[in-house]
Amino acid sequence: MGYITEIKCRFCNAELTHEFIDLGYQPPSNSFLSNLNEPETTYPLKAYVCDQCFLVQVPESKKASEIFKDDYVYFSSQSPSNVSHAKEFADKMCERFGLGTESKVLEIGSNDGYLLQWFKERGCDVLGFEPADGPAEEAEKKGIKSLSFFTSTAAMSHPDNADLICGINVIAHQPDINDFVKGVRIALKPDGVAVFEFPHLMRTIEGCQFDQFYAEHFSYFSLMTVSAIFIQHGLLIFDADEIPEHGGSLRIYAGHSMNRNHWLHFDCRNKMDRINSREYGMDNLNYYSGFRYKVNKIKTDLVSFLIEQKKLGKAVVGYGAPAKASTLLNYCGIRSDLLPFVVDRSPYKVGKYLPGSHISVRDEDHLKSIKPEYVLILAWNLKEEIMKQLSYIRDWNAKFVVAIPELTVTKDEVLAMGFVMKLEVI
Predict the structure, then answer these.
(1) What is the pLDDT of residue 76?
(2) What is the fold of 297-424?
(3) What angle do CA 338, 407, 214 make, to 5 degrees?
(4) CATH number of 76-287: 3.40.50.150, 3.40.50.300, 3.20.20.70, 1.10.443.10?
(5) Domain boundaries of the chain, sorted by first residue
(6) How do residues 14-33 score in pLDDT, each as one tens digit?
(7) Model's pTM, two decimal places?
């Protein structure tokens, strides 16, 4: 691990001296370009692990207020799986905690209202915090009031107000994690519950999911570390679910620690203990030391595959333009000579260019007209959904490719290449 100075842990303020992964200089992963004459600023995408609290984190090179602005192109409702997951989440929360017409639900990172719409449908009083103007405007069209950034100061306008505070893939976006959790405590009713989902650091490391690191994500959590953060601010995590989203995520449930007895009937210590036991070793720096070598192998394998297909005269195009695609392509140095375009269903992305790599984003009709031999699934967390959507590519004998956690090509086929590739029969 490398050695640096003068960067402090955003939770415990210890000096960060241990480099976890260096993915080079990259632009913010959702800063799509409308034309290639636009100036583009890059920032160091380097993560560190704290040797005191073991929070893995990326220093805030670009302010969150600059990232989540009016040209932010991520709209949650564009993914059917996002919407269905949100409905399942809302149904489960309402049933488990008895939420209904008298309940107040506050969502942080509410985007275009894809989650709060389901609570609203059940008669809950809903409020969203969403700093990106475009998604917030879409939420307003659904009758969902949306405020900007959630902070402890903003929470003071809603003290002890919420029966449920929730956030899906939002806690990682908080540059000031202490102020964020403090705000949750302020806004949560004495008997309320806070529920957050985020990629589980353990699964990120096990699956070598390095493309989940990007400028918008400031922190990466184990259950061990996130529990310590919540306890520090008067909240107790009393339950946790392991869920498949994003290659393996945690859903944590927290309440006021001073009301510990209130949560006894929800207590799931056996489940928590099982997760903690699987996290064995995450409080030791050696656990984090081999990640970069696995990342380098993914880079070598993917670039070698693309070069080999180019030599053979076979076309490879990408599918999906999520933030993780930018991290992968930019770290691997992949440009349009190896991947001529990517396809995405979002009208907010089609016609633009991926940040850094400058690969064009096209609609699905372009895929059908080109009929490439291979489709590289960049949104690998939605692999099954995408394979169903694009099942027609087999009409011209095309194959799917996934790079993470290792290079995988559908169908039992051996390619003449200088490395071993996992082959998958779909």
Answers:
(1) 76
(2) Rossmann fold (3.40.50)
(3) 70
(4) 3.40.50.150
(5) 76-287, 297-424
(6) 999 999 999 999 998 888 99
(7) 0.90
